[in-house]
Design a protein that fits this description.
The complex is a heterodimer of chains A (87) and B (226). Chain A is mainly alpha-helical and 87 residues long. The longest helix of chain A is centred in the middle third of the chain and has 10 residues. Chain A has 2 helices and no strands. Chain A is globular, with a radius of gyration of 12 Å. Chain B is built from 4 helices and 13 strands. In chain B, a hairpin with a 3-residue loop joins strand 3 and strand 4. In chain B, helix 2 crosses helix 3. The two termini of chain B are 37 Å apart. Classes of the chains: A mainly alpha (87), B alpha+beta (226).
């Protein structure tokens, strides 16, 4: 089952960003590069602050792996904004 | 008086059922293959029976010493060279995890005519660099590999697996999350790692902020004596 990144709207995360106990998944979003449980719990970023930085830097594909064909950061972000926001 | 006895019995039963249901394998089972023999060692969070099953031959191994323990060891023999097996590990009542088991040489599937492997208790140790989500390994390496002087994604994954083995040997601080995630921390080096229920690695890095491990969820577990 895929999960949506609450930072950038990427819809193919392998795990839920947070478990029921509140722990981070430690997954690194390949789209925006946010690592759940590390970027926030250790480095102090909020979803909003990371997103703002990512947008400012041109919304580039973050992963060293190949960018999916048709990946559209603006579209996924719009979809995230149009949905319910939790941050 | 009779009511009290019934109540006490119910409580004891409830505790026993809870214990059985909560049994979890901590970290990755260690598998060492030598010729036609493989020795497997694993740790559980509560003391329980020891049982292993090799498929497709379906040889079930139970050590003669049936004393419940948290540190389990079995040796499986009669394996064929260049063959891929699956080994299930568990308590006397249920299977907890299944791991791939391959012998050296040219890989082939076992045939029905193959003699079934047999098993008994024996000592062993080995480390396999298993990463939970292999497609994410390059990103974790790119971000955290330098924390450990890792030279490649594989080297980084190996160091993460070795860290878990060391944590078990030295009894490093560890927390077990109800979802099965095991979090380990080395206060001396500042290294932190998280592992999936099956022992594969989720991440491995050195947090920058003090108190990171303490803030993580989960109950403290003693990896050395569990």
């Amino acid at each position: 089952m895929n999960h949506t990144c609450p930072v950038c709207g990427y819809s193919k995360l392998q795990e839920a960003p947070r478990s029921k106990s509140g722990g981070g998944s430690y997954e690194i979003c390949p789209s925006c590069g946010f690592q759940f449980g590390v970027s926030d719990d250790d480095e102090g970023f909020t979803y909003q602050s990371w997103r703002a930085q990512w947008e400012k830097e041109g919304m580039k594909w973050s992963s060293t792996t190949k960018r999916p064909k048709g990946w559209d950061p603006k579209k996924q972000l719009q979809k995230l904004h149009s949905g319910s926001r939790h941050d | 008086m009779r009511k009290l006895r019934v109540c006490l019995l119910a409580i004891l039963l409830l505790v026993a059922v809870k214990q059985v249901g909560a049994t979890t394998v901590i970290g990755a089972p260690r598998i060492a293959v030598s010729g036609a023999q493989a020795t497997v060692e694993w740790t559980t969070d509560v003391a329980c029976g020891t049982r292993a099953k090799v498929t497709p031959d379906a040889a079930v191994a139970e050590p003669s010493d049936k004393t419940p323990t948290t540190n389990h060891r079995v040796t499986v023999s009669g394996l064929r060279s260049g063959t891929s097996y699956q080994i299930s590990l568990g308590t006397a009542r249920k299977w907890l995890t299944t791991q791939p088991l391959s012998t050296g040489g040219n890989t082939a599937s076992p045939t029905a005519a193959s003699p079934a492997p047999t098993a008994a208790r024996a000592p062993m140790m080995n480390t396999r660099p298993a990463w939970g989500n292999p497609s994410s390994l390059p990103d974790h390496f790119a971000r955290h590999g330098a924390d450990f002087g890792a030279t490649s994604p594989e080297d980084y994954a190996r160091k993460a697996a070795e860290f878990l083995q060391r944590a078990k040997t030295e009894g490093l601080p560890a927390k077990l999350d109800p979802d099965g995630t095991l979090r380990v921390f080395d206060p001396k080096s500042g290294a932190f790692a998280a592992y999936n229920r099956n022992g594969t690695t989720k991440t491995f890095f050195k947090p920058g902020r003090p108190g990171y491990f303490e803030r993580q969820p989960g109950r403290l577990v003693d990896l050395r004596h569990q």
